[in-house]
Write a structure and sequence with these properties.
The structure is a homodimer. By secondary structure, chain A is of the alpha/beta class. Chain A is built from 15 helices and 10 strands. At the A-B interface, helix 5, helix 6, helix 7, helix 11 and strand 8 of A face helix 5, helix 6, helix 7, helix 11 and strand 8 of B.
Chain lengths: 424, 424
């Protein structure tokens, strides 16, 4: 199971302990549904619901797509996009030769990006998974129009067989259209906000198509939910939530999520949405940023070591790599690295991670480590549950509603008006 | 030429104007070489030096590589990596069929990432461009050992013909090795720090191999340097540098660099190194973060709109896209988007960008816009010169040495000791 190591944070606590009593209360508020936004806690039950619900059909659909197509175009934005992209990037950063390539569209308006993606798909057979609760969110709706047209051109009357709509279970523009056109649909649950939806069909269908074992993801998530329900300061979720809230209260306003795996990049993006959108409101919130080590030690490293002392750092470490690779011996030893010859790159990486932690702590950056056993389906699922629970608890500890996002409407209102949408 | 639009920032200036006199002094300090770190201002002359120096040989070498290989492995970290990656991602986000694929290695220690890259290269012919001033920086040195071994296996005695070393002009482990092995070399200039080196061979060779017209980049950069030498508040460089310093002084501690192009992602990373490493020291500095719109309006958007009011936002906008794509008309109009039918995606994107700016300004986020004519070689070159000059001037305005990075040594010291390097 996931472990949290706060040994690099303790010296910054100023004599106080993180408030585990507040974490206990927040945890109870979350589970009992007595807090703000309590209608949006369906993610606490998603794994068991998926097992008895859509999971088999998701797997079946993925198999169908894999058997006939080379590409899947996933159309979605925000929570309807980041979870699947995070999972696929982490677990399948480079597709195998026979894997379906997954492309993410509808998460912006750049015509150049659209055309680049079309170029990559080329003449390949492809399917479309459009993900939108309402069907009227501008970016995915525009992309979906474009891809429906392309599907019609390519497959004629059979175009609809290549469309899978993940949307509201009964209402909304996309659901109505799917019903009238006969597209297969999956559900965006009513009681799960976008940023908590990766373990619903929203995330699982693209993941399954990319070759990820989603049954394992879901069964691991179910187990993690049970394990992390522990009501004690031994719970790694409490440790992380309470420590970061404590640090925030005493002046650490920015949290860096760091990893040593390049494949972690979009988990960082997913985490930024999860925490940023949940906690950043009412004028408060920890600013979430992400870095990739060791690369960024040679870019952001200077700032982290020596800049304003309001940064805290959370490092996600994986217990073991999939691969090993020993440093070769070199006769000439011009680079002076023979003292490392024969040692495994992954093991060297772990020493470097310890060295980085020591340097940052010494430089005044509180450090928290989240240790995940492996970078695989189980590890991903545990990590998702861990961060989601921590986010709900941390949000309640800070007094906000961790399940709404009122600020997202502001630009949309302006946008529709300026675009001349009828009735605005 | 680049324009800066401060109309979304002015209302936050609290009645004062940005300090253009200080910008003028900082500009003079920079150009006259009377400030801290003045030995590292060679980037002010790089374009003209390259034209009369290595540029033709860089182009010739790139042609040789393109004619015989399918892949180029660029080994480097920090400034020896981010510039080229930013340029290639921005200008060639998807390689054409006959383009050489450029892989970036030696910027971390993950064995999984290494093996994934090796899988992608497969049996293709490849060349290696190792970029390191000293040749002893851990990550690239380890990767280079691995790739030298692979080259030997693949090409035997001719392995050396596939190695191009960008390194110190006369000293250091890599230069010595290159001399004794007979590898072709290019120069990491003595008077240019890594983060300012993209327009030297460090950035130009990988860019040229990827199919970017580096002659155009360099001639545009030379022109931009002249244009932006203007000593007046009309200079967009002064506007940006002075505005962000003014905002920092009155409490805006975090700067978000935003773009509407997914291909901009690694320019964001390059920019974070440039500004973060130059300004983040002595306990001060603006925290640099980057976001991708519109995607991140559906993730970080909530925080930006409603979180703590210490964010400023710099949006890079390109005047026109390479591609156009009109929103299709849809008979049923289920998504209600027919009011957009026939309108170009890029034009819609511009309206959305204006809407976002209005919403953020209204929400309390000072907004600066950097307008770049086009996303092409000229635009990239102008942008590089613009941000480099702004960084030097902004750094001097804040009182730091914008050309050193003393904090980067802290983790290295720990690391070498913990790895058991002889003599530590």
């Amino acid at each position: 199971m996931i472990k949290v190591d706060l040994s690099g944070a303790k010296s910054f606590f100023k004599g106080e302990n993180p408030d585990y009593e507040a974490a206990a209360r927040a945890h109870e508020t979350l589970v009992s549904g007595t807090g703000k936004g309590s209608d949006f806690r369906g993610w606490l039950e998603l794994p068991s619901r998926m097992i008895s619900g859509e999971l088999p059909r998701i797997i079946e659909t993925a198999e169908k797509i894999k058997s006939r197509s080379n590409a899947l175009v996933v159309i979605g934005i925000g929570g309807s996009y980041l979870g699947a992209r995070a999972a696929i990037n982490l677990l399948k950063p480079v597709p195998d030769e026979n894997d379906v390539k997954v492309f993410f569209l509808g998460n912006g308006l750049s015509p150049d990006y659209l055309c680049d993606t079309l170029k990559q798909i080329g003449d390949d057979d492809f399917d479309v998974n459009v993900i939108s609760k309402s069907g009227t969110t501008l970016e995915p709706a525009v992309s979906f129009r474009i891809f429906r047209e392309l599907l019609k051109k390519k497959y004629g009357d059979r175009a609809g067989e290549h469309i899978f709509a993940t949307t509201d279970k009964e209402r909304g523009a996309l659901k109505s259209l799917a019903n009238s056109e006969g597209w297969e649909t999956f559900v965006v649950p009513d009681d799960v906000g976008g940023r908590y939806s990766v373990l619903s069909a929203v995330g699982l269908l693209p993941m399954a198509v990319a070759g990820i074992d989603v049954s394992k993801v879901i069964s691991s998530a179910e187990k993690a939910l049970k394990n992390m329900d522990l009501r004690s300061p031994e719970n790694p979720v409490w440790q992380y939530a309470a420590a970061r809230q404590h640090l925030y209260r005493i002046g650490y306003g920015t949290e860096l999520l760091a990893s040593f795996e390049p494949s972690f990049r979009f988990v960082g993006e997913w985490w930024k949405q999860l925490f940023g959108e949940s906690e950043g409101k009412d004028g408060v919130g920890i600013f979430p940023a992400s870095v990739e080590y060791t690369a960024d030690l040679h870019s952001m490293g200077q700032f982290i070591q020596d800049g304003p002392r309001n940064l805290m750092e959370t490092v996600v470490r994986f217990g073991s790599e999939a691969e090993t690779y020993a440093v070769p011996f070199d006769e000439g030893n011009a680079d002076g690295l023979n003292y490392l010859a024969g040692r495994d790159l992954g093991e060297i990486g772990k020493v470097v991670a310890d060295a980085v932690r020591a340097a940052h702590v010494e430089g005044g950056v509180p450090n928290m480590v989240v240790e995940i056993p492996r970078r695989n389906e189980e590890g991903f699922a545990e990590m998702v549950i861990f961060f989601e629970l921590a986010c709900g608890i941390s949000g309640y500890m800070s007094g906000v509603n961790p399940f709404n996002q009122p600020g997202v409407e502001a630009y949309k209102k302006n946008m529709f008006k300026m675009l001349g949408k009828p009735g605005t």
